[in-house]
TrEMBL record:
Keyword Magnesium carried by entry: no
TM helices/strands, residue ranges: 21-41, 74-93, 105-124, 144-168, 194-214, 226-247, 254-274, 294-313
Keywords: Membrane, Transmembrane, Transmembrane helix
GO cellular component: a single term: Golgi apparatus
The protein's name: Uncharacterized protein
InterPro entries: UPF0658_Golgi (IPR040410)
């Protein structure tokens, strides 16, 4: 059996210093944020450890028992930070491995949104503190941690922006050197890549919004809570996965259903936005500690959905022009190259591949590059 070393190239990372720096910054950021947010969670638990248990088993409740002030409100936000960083690493890795300039730009913008989210958190804690966040006012350690989080995101956002420009220049000419000289296929591929990236972002933001709504606003005794957890969240994931499939195989009827459903969903988010801010009883405000966070996620999700609908229509119009067949043709040629290399290695065990080997490939490679 031939043993292969696991290298950056075998994982799809190009030899370019800019590509590897892009991944390094993402990994450095995820390490820093996980360490910071992990300690923030510990501080939160320590502060709340003497409180009365909340509806979910931990946290504080006020005397009226109408409004729950819970530590999970803060822990959920910190967990979202951590999950967002893992999602960002996935975006960066996949974007660099596939030389996808659109997703590289999307990863940079996603990091900026994380910075905005950290600013909202700091505002909620120290500039305009909510009722429950007031307990952190005299905690200087927490203040330093939140400022450090914003600094990390700011520095990494600048680094991502600079590296994205270098990667765009490096990958840009390759991105459009595809599918021969057919301009219509190039345009179709551009919309295809944009929609794939948007669907990934849709999944993250909608699930994050739903988790916050179900765990922080809705009550355990409220049937809507379990509908949100048991039906809406998994159903949304299945729907968005179906969107990926419809795009890949160019199923017109399925894509029409996707476009119609996505087109109707803004009505729900507008309704929730109005409900959070209009006609709320100040003595029993379920959105007291979550309004800013949920508003941020609703606005971002709403914008993403509207853009996704527009891009989906563009992709639907491109069905049948030959993009699917071009993808299949590239995949078959890549499989043939892989088989040829495996045959060559088996016939010559001492053979060491080099950069001039015409059968050289990586398992994660740029799609559609016909060089």
């Amino acid at each position: 059996m031939i043993k292969r070393r696991i290298t950056l190239k075998s994982c799809g990372i190009p030899k370019s210093i800019w590509a590897r720096l892009f991944i390094f910054v993402a990994l450095l950021e995820v390490f820093a944020i996980i360490c910071i947010e992990g300690y923030v969670i510990k501080r939160t638990v320590d502060i709340y450890k003497n409180g009365t248990e909340s509806q979910w088993g931990f946290g504080l409740q006020n005397d009226s028992n109408k409004m729950t002030i819970t530590q999970e409100s803060f822990i959920v936000y910190d967990v979202i930070f951590i999950v967002a960083q893992l999602f960002l690493v996935m975006l960066c890795w996949e974007a660099v491995a596939h030389k996808n300039t659109i997703q590289i730009i999307a990863a940079t913008l996603f990091n900026v949104m994380c910075l905005v989210y950290s600013l909202i958190q700091y505002t909620t804690f120290y500039i305009r503190p909510s009722t429950s966040a007031g307990i952190f006012q005299k905690d200087n350690d927490m203040r330093i941690l939140l400022i450090t989080t914003m600094v990390v995101y700011s520095l990494c956002s600048v680094a991502f922006a600079m590296l994205s420009w270098e990667l765009y220049q490096m990958f840009g000419w390759q991105t459009y050197k595809k599918l021969g000289a057919n301009l219509s296929l190039r345009r179709a591929y551009k919309w295809h890549q944009i929609l794939l990236t948007l669907l990934k972002l849709d999944i993250f933001f909608f699930i994050s919004y739903s988790v916050q709504l179900a765990t922080l606003v809705l009550r355990v005794s409220d049937p809507e809570t379990w509908v949100q957890i048991g039906v809406v969240i998994p159903g949304s994931v299945v729907f968005l996965v179906l969107s990926f499939w419809a795009l890949k195989v160019e199923k017109r009827r399925v894509m029409i259903v996707v476009i119609v459903c996505l087109g109707c969903s803004p009505a729900y988010f507008i309704y929730k936005l109005v409900r959070m801010n209009v006609g709320i009883n100040k003595n029993d405000d379920p959105y007291l500690d979550t309004r800013k966070y949920l508003t941020f996620f609703i606005v971002v999700t709403l914008v993403l959905i509207l853009v996704t609908v527009y891009v989906s229509i563009q992709c639907y119009r491109n069905f049948g022009i030959g993009l699917k067949e071009a993808i299949a043709g590239y995949d078959s040629r890549k499989a043939q190259l892989k088989a040829n290399k495996a045959l060559e290695d088996s016939s010559n065990p001492d053979h060491v591949p080099n950069s001039n080997n015409r059968y050289e490939y990586t398992d994660v490679n740029e799609r559609f590059v016909l060089e």
